[in-house]
Amino acid sequence: MYPRPVSRTEKSAFDRAVAALARRALSTGELRLRLARAGHAREEIDAALRRLVELQLVDDQAVAYNHARSRAASGRRGPARVRAELAARGIRGADAEGAVAAAFDAEGVAAAAAQAFARCSRGMSRPLAAPERAKVAARLARAGFPAAMIRSLLASEGAGEAADELLLDGIDDGSAEDEPGVLRDAED
Predict the structure, then answer these.
(1) DSSP string spanning 164-180?
(2) Whole-model pTM?
(3) pLDDT digits (tens, 9 = 90+) for 23-75
(4) CB under 8 Å to 56, separation ≥6 — which residues?
């Protein structure tokens, strides 16, 4: 895709970025994508982003922290899911890890996982049958909760651990380099 020429009546990349930031906080990755879609040249985008950073109008670390904090407070997402959401917003590495670590503590993740488990298993007969346990485990994994936590929640339901191991076989426990707690090859 070639950038289209920007006429004198259209906004510059900087002005367009400032207008977008006036609506909501965006990461540099999100701004870069929006400006590229608007047809601005790469050099103009780079210059606009440099200027925004100099003026302290863009702060990926603050965007990451606020996003992670709001997701943690909702109790519906686990750390792995929030990490993936931050990556989708163009925030990776130390900024994302720092934000997730600041937003999630072990007790908070456990409480959120227990709430999510109760929501996911609402209306299901107790004890949960194998197909229901598989559905609940998959939902919790997609929500980004660690596999060990999912195992303990399923164990509290009382069915055999051998069945749970089969259910959680596709969930990474964080020992690999993949995102912990995320189903492999699964669509959300």
Answers:
(1) HHHHGGGB--SSSSSPT
(2) 0.76
(3) 999 999 999 999 999 999 999 999 999 999 999 999 999 999 999 999 999 88
(4) none
